[in-house]
């Protein structure tokens, strides 16, 4: 009887022994999901190497980069061909004062819009303007913040 009781206890311990906790997948914010969707949609025609370069935040002056950036920012509704980057919406979309230095970001984005503005007609002028304005922003501390943030989004940390 003692041996049977011992076996029952061991069996019971096996059944109720807790399993190691499983780490849940990180919960992504709606903003991060929107960034990833825009990235995927606009990157459909890219080669794996081109996609890798963009993911590494390397934005060469090439037609595929210009098209990708215009698509990405337009899809997020943060770029309008008539007025350029929507600075206030970008700041709100990227977390506002909690995440960005608004006093720095607002004039940088608006300044790059103005400095690089294209008054030409046609879709290509808007694509070129978007690229030039983006490169301008990327050369500032706001661009450095954007690179870190996008890297976190791409790597599942935001």
UniProtKB/TrEMBL annotation:
CDD domains: PBP_GOBP (cd23992)
Gene3D superfamilies linked to this entry: Pheromone/general odorant binding protein domain
Signal peptide: 1-18
Matches recorded under InterPro entries: PBP/GOBP, PBP_GOBP_sf
Transmembrane segments annotated in the record for this chain: none
Gene Ontology MF term list: odorant binding
Keywords for this protein: Signal
Name of this chain's protein: Odorant-binding protein 8a
Organism field: Drosophila erecta
Designated gene of the protein: Dere\Obp8a
């Amino acid at each position: 009887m003692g041996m049977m009781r011992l076996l029952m206890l061991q069996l019971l311990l096996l059944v109720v022994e807790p399993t190691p906790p499983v780490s849940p997948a990180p919960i992504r914010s709606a903003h991060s999901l929107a960034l990833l969707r825009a990235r995927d949609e606009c990157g459909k025609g890219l080669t794996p190497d081109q996609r890798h370069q963009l993911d590494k935040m390397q934005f060469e002056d090439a037609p595929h980069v210009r098209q990708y950036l215009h698509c990405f920012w337009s899809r997020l509704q943060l770029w309008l061909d008539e007025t350029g980057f929507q600075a206030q919406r970008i700041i709100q979309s990227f977390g506002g004062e909690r995440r960005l230095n608004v006093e720095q970001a607002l004039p940088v984005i608006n300044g790059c819009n103005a400095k690089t503005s294209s008054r030409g007609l046609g879709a290509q002028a808007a694509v070129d303007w978007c690229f030039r304005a983006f490169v301008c922003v990327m050369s500032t501390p706001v661009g450095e913040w954007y690179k870190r943030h996008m890297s976190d989004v791409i790597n599942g940390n935001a």
